[in-house]
Amino acid sequence: MTDLTLPEAPDYDGAHLRRILPSVGASLGLSSSDASGECFQNRLGLPEANIAVVLMVDGLGDEQLARHTGHARFLASRWRKPATGRVLDAGVPSTTSASLTSLGTGRTPGEHGLTGYNVYAEDLDRVVNMLGGWDPEVDPGSWQPHSSLLGRAEGSGAAVVTISRPQFQDSPLTQAALSGGEFLGAKHMDARFRLAEDWISGHRPRKGQVRQGAPTPLMVYLYVDELDKTGHKHGVDSAEWIRMLELLDAEAERFCASLSALYGSQALVLMTADHGMIDIAPENRIDLQALEQQEQDELLGAVEHVAGEPRFLHLHTVEGREAEVRETWQRAFGDQAWVVQKQEALDAGWFGPVEDRVLSRIGDVLVAVHGPIALFHTAESGKAPLSMVGQHGSLTDAERKIPLLSLSGQDIRPD
């Protein structure tokens, strides 16, 4: 065991990111079209609606919002009220690929298999990327075989749209986790909000207009990544990040006011995030390849592959040397990280239920950083990531706790 008590696993069965879209589907009155017969369940106690917008703000953790409420007064007005604001868990690791796939499939990382930013592919015997650098030999549908909740909602009779950056329309991550319905792309944040408003108005008569029959339920997935990009570049306490938060707050307020005026209580607007973020000082961004050769040899000599991200490393070791690697990394970083072998993490429930096909993607030794450092394996990543200020991936509250806000003002009541 490690010297420090391990953190609790994410609340996968309760207040977790993966429960959002099933709860939205239930709030819209949708039945399931999944081959397993699994139903949409309103585990998060969302109010009934026939228009639902899920605003995913990449990188806006609950602690970051709490620290900057004065720059996000509209969001803060919902965050402060228990009836319109809750705190959810992201999964392990607290990173975009894992979280968006949990959101899109309703599955834990151990089930869907996107267990990090970089993941070891046993059949290829190499580390593959789960975001913009997706390996062409990794088929998204085989790598992640579970059905998309957006697709299930569409199959259940809802009109569904994803509104995001244009380049994500056919991305492997979209194929693996967020397929289904229409896709509309816009480069800038304000244009994405306006696309969402226009799409809804094109599918729904305004309040008071005559219509025939029951309205088609509408589900909108609206993705905003400007805060995440700004946080990585400048940090989450920077003037640039705060300015981007102010822009988001203004756009969200304008959007919600417009929907409320047009559709009243028919429209439910939820805001959430995929992870939080912390700033890492330049001197605490540790390049493993810049260490003394003896220290490199001790840390990496029995490690065949390094995957994950700087605050959550997956170390795939030479067979039989897992305990040795754990002890070596514990001596080096045990005051700054939880260093565990795979079985310890599985027993602790970090990844939730884990399917057999996913086991090899989890490192033999895991280094989950809790101190103000980040560990870079630049032999694979190159040196460019060393310039990134904002980091995430581990199990600290600042990285894993995310908000769920009802921006339309309708109450959220736990089921």
Automatic annotation (TrEMBL):
Coiled coil: none
Annotated segments matching region Disordered: 87-108
UniProt source species: Nesterenkonia lacusekhoensis
UniProt biased composition (Low complexity): 94-106
Source taxon at top rank: Bacteria
Signal peptide per UniProt: none
Protein name stated in the entry: AlkP superfamily pyrophosphatase or phosphodiesterase
